[in-house]
Amino acid sequence: PVIIGDSAKALKTAEKLFAYGVYATAIRPPTVREGTARIRTTLMATFSNGDIDTALDVFGKLKKEGSL
After folding, report:
1. What are the pLDDT digits (tens) for 9-20?
2. Helix (H, G, I), strand (E, B) or coil at 39
3. Which one of 23, 38, 50, 64 is most buried, by most CB atoms within 10 A?
4. Gap between the Cα atoms of 65 and 34, Å rounded
């Protein structure tokens, strides 16, 4: 998981990821403790190296803009 902390920020981050073509869900209370909201990532055997590179690039972009 990528720990975000704030639930609203986790939701916003998941929306931004989806807009870039990366499906990763926001996990929030009550599933996790308050203040520990996160983005859940899952890899599948069907992903290509390009798929993984794209996801990493998008996460990097969001980190630079302060979404992570």
Report:
1. 999 999 999 999
2. strand
3. 38
4. 24
Task: State in Å, rounded, how far the first CA of the chain is from the last one.
Answer: 12
Enumerate residues 6+ apart whose C-beta is below 8 A from 51.
none
Q: Which helix (H) or strand (E) holds 37?
A: strand 37-40
Q: Judge contact between 36 and 51, C-beta under 8 A.
A: no
- Cα 68 to Cα 61: distance, rounded to the nearest angstrom: 9
**Residues 43, 8, 37, 68, Cα dihedral to 10°:** 60
* pTM, two decimal places: 0.88
